[in-house]
Prior knowledge:
Strands 1, 2, 3, 4, 5 and 6 form a 6-stranded antiparallel β-sheet that branches. The protein starts with 5 loop residues before the first helix and ends with a strand. It is built from 5 helices and 6 strands, in the order H-H-E-E-H-H-E-E-H-E-E. A hairpin with a 2-residue loop joins strand 1 (45-52) and strand 2 (55-62). It has helices spanning 6-21, 28-34, 64-75, 82-100, 125-128, and strands spanning 45-52, 55-62, 111-113, 117-119, 133-141, 144-153. It has a single domain (6-153), classed as CheC-like (Chemotaxis protein chec), CATH 3.40.1550.10. The chain has 155 residues and is of the alpha+beta class.
Amino acid sequence: xxxxxxxxxxxxxxxxxxxxxxxxxxxxxxxxxxxxxxxxxxxxxxxxxxxxxxxxxxxxxxxxxxxxxxxxxxxxxxxxxxxxxxxxxxxxxxxxxxxxxxxxxxxxxxxxxxxxxxxxxxxxxxxxxxxxxxxxxxxxxxxxxxxxxxxxxxx
Length: 155
């Protein structure tokens, strides 16, 4: 049976949203009632590639409400601009990815993160070109939903 990191990635994401954005995950019953309502997902994604102990990419796609709340809570502003929302999303992605890649460490090997960047529908096709293993989770928070996918190759 292949090793799955989904539970660990989910916990890392929840801890990050709680610590950095003051957001809390919904319990499983609340999350199950919302799981059919993923249509309000933003067309903005943040992606980070990494290499070293393993090579891959992490992509975070928030709901529109969550995108607004991430920036508002991180920056302490009521009405964040588009640039502030994009910057906050990239920073959350950087933190979650930075805490996730040690899962792939083999002995003393480490992973190196590349700077986060935005993916739009125009360049999101590169995500579909990723091969190897994939872990996908949804994190349901009281402010919205984060869809997190990690594509990686084990060595």
